Amino acid sequence: MPHLDAGYNLARWLTRDVHDAEDVVQDACMRALKYVGTLRDGAARAWFLTIVRHAFYDWCGRNRPAEILKDDGTAIDMAADDTAVGPEQAALRSAESRVLADAVAELPLVFREVLVLRELEELSYKEIARIADIPVGTVMSRLARARSLLRRSPLLHSIRGRTSGGEQ
Amino acid sequence: MNCNEAGMLVAKYADGEVDSLQGRSIEQHLRGCAACAAKHQDLLALRAQIGAEVPYFTATPELRERVRALLANAQDTARARPRPKRDRWGWLTGGFVAGCAATLLAWGVGTTVIAWRANEDVAVEAVATHVRATLNNHLIQVASSDQHTVKPWLSARLDYSPPVQDLASEGFALTGGRLDMLNKQRVATLVYSHRLHTIDVFVRPESAPAPSTLRTVRGFNVVHATGSGMDWIAVSDVNADELTEFVQRLAQQTPSP
Known about the structure:
- The complex is a heterodimer of chains A (168) and B (257).
- Chain A is mainly α and 168 residues long.
- Chain A is built from eleven helices and no strands.
- Chain A has helices at residues 4-15, 18-34, 44-63, 65-72, 74-80, 87-94, 100-106, 109-120, 125-132, 136-151, 154-167.
- In chain A, α3 packs across α4.
- Chain B has seven helices and seven strands.
- In chain B, a hairpin with a 2-residue loop joins β2 and β3 (185-194).
């Protein structure tokens, strides 16, 4: 299972829980075995990550249906509106002590998954589009939104303040 | 390039998703535009910070071991129960064989029908040719009762040489020959007279779909025989028995006594 780490990393960031991530990965491995015929050459990692993502959404539908609902529906609109302050942003702003990893974990699901695939898996827009089953344009806009949400987190502000202060 | 155009490209550029042409123009813009350059630096800084602070989780050895056991187990069960797979292949093979059988059957029926239609057509065409020649009084292009005159005349105009035989001694006198078109091919036509009847005998190289031996079309008898490497199709109002005997004599080419 050469891409187990990649699959586990994605599952870990999507579920935000050690044990849930392991459940999702095990389910994904069983599915991978079943659908190994659909694997194309040279794209094994993206293929496995697609399966992990599907396994996660199925698992999430069974165990945390509210999360998909919240993140797929209202969260996008709210986050897409710069002036609106959603609960996530409010949480981010209030949590001065949180590190960047927590800020990533607090991102709404649809932004979190593209950010993790881009920044941690270092996949191309095209590969992310295929995995998340969305157009490349949507990958770009979600990525931009994810970054702007991160940048607006209080943690980042404090860091930027520090670095620019250092330069002066 | 202005900042508006550069806006989305900056992120693409930072993600390494621009082609070399776009890359050059964005680099040029970044050199001249402090705002966009800051945006670019911002993205790079964020990337660096994510790289440094956001962990990449790797599977624990326990999970790795569990997955390995899981997969090995699944493969064992798959090996222990090979039936569904074989069933599916069985179906596929069955379907394949049935498909082949159906194709062969269709081909067989098709060729039979086509051959039958072709024979039908040849008989009808032969009668039509015979009638047309009779009506136009155009029965004979080379008039001779001498087989050694008729044969070379035909051979010179065809890509084959039809055997020509005078059977005057048996009441079938050779009166001449002509060329006709039959089934889109040039054929030799031998003209015989038998009492007051005229007999047209179309001679062509033997072809695969052999016409039926005897048919009656519009009152004319059409008799077919094969021999000497030729198809012999005789058309006449002579009665069927006599005509059959005559055409078989011709086909066998037994020298006249």
